[in-house]
Design a protein that fits this description.
The protein is of the alpha/beta class. The chain is built from ten helices and ten strands. Helices cover 33% and strands 17% of the residues. Helix 3 crosses helix 4 and helix 4 crosses helix 6.
């Protein structure tokens, strides 16, 4: 079996993942890579490919300009050149989608063996997978990762949100199957789009991979005393980009307002990484 994952946004490379190096380089990268790593070990799986955009930027690692990156003997990260080798986000990425779709279909046509299935991550990848299915007959699975429908219920709006919801609706309707991570997605969020998904939606909560013991190698945990008065206490860990929608300020306020909690635990927040590309909002928060 040949499984192809398709994810366009962010800085996708072999582990370790550069979380927060750009605004689009979030937890979905680990989801994609870890899923592919596990699938590549399964009996009956001959090959797994993660396809993403090829780009080059002086501010980002040069690996993103490589057409192929070998992760294991059965897993590769393959980068497709759309003709625009800049790093792109949001509106610019959407504008590049037609060119990327054509380049991706050329990539598929040039393979010695066709994928048995495409796993599309986010609605932009689903749009590409829809066209690939039309041309080559390859079924596709869709994982939305983050859905926009709740933003409309919160009173937010605008053309950008409407466009995103329309793309997500198309992806949900067209997918041969959907894989989501939580019951809330499966039972509330996806059905809110008004598209029948009975028998097509599957909830598969992602696990946490076990890492081998570093064997005496110093880690960040060993340096907690640099920042914490009582590093021996258990840790409440939050990992998120420093933007308003992640609500980190509310987390800090809730922690500080509970004396019993901060007597028993430390709150540790990892909010992005310094030194990479970031939005103006992130730069303002990080100072």
């Amino acid at each position: 079996m040949f499984i192809l994952h398709l994810a366009l946004g962010g800085c996708l490379k072999a582990p370790p993942i550069d979380f927060g190096i750009t605004a689009d380089s979030g937890g979905h990268l680990a989801y994609v890579v870890d899923a592919a790593l596990v699938q590549a070990k399964l009996p009956g799986v001959d090959r797994v490919s993660i396809v993403t955009r090829l780009f080059r930027s002086a501010d980002l690692p040069s690996v993103h300009g490589l057409r192929s990156e070998c992760v294991t003997d059965r897993l590769t990260i393959d980068r497709v050149d759309s003709g625009d080798d800049r790093y792109l986000e949001k509106e610019a990425l959407a504008a590049d989608l037609p060119a990327f779709t054509e380049a991706f279909c050329r990539h598929i046509a040039g393979l010695a063996v066709m994928p048995n299935v495409i796993h599309a991550h986010f609605a932009d990848a689903a749009a590409v997978a829809i066209e690939a299915r039309r041309r080559f007959g390859i079924p596709f699975v869709y994982t939305p990762h983050a859905l926009a429908i709740d933003k409309r219920r919160q009173g937010l709006g605008g053309a950008e949100l409407d466009t995103r919801i329309a793309a997500e609706t198309t992806a949900i309707a067209a997918a041969d199957a959907l894989i989501v991570s939580t019951r809330d997605e499966a039972e509330r969020q996806v059905p809110a789009y008004g598209v029948g998904v009975a028998g097509r939606i599957h909830c598969v909560p992602p696990g946490v991979p076990r890492r081998p013991d570093a064997g005496g190698t110093a880690t960040l945990v060993d340096r907690l005393g640099d920042w914490l008065d009582r590093p021996d206490l258990p840790i409440l860990l939050a990992i998120a980009r420093p933007v308003a929608k992640k609500n980190l300020a509310a987390l800090v306020r809730a922690f500080a307002a509970d004396p019993a909690l901060h007597e028993r635990a430390n709150l540790v927040i990892l909010a992005g990484q310094h030194g990479g590309q970031s939005s103006s909002e992130e730069r303002a928060v990080l100072g």
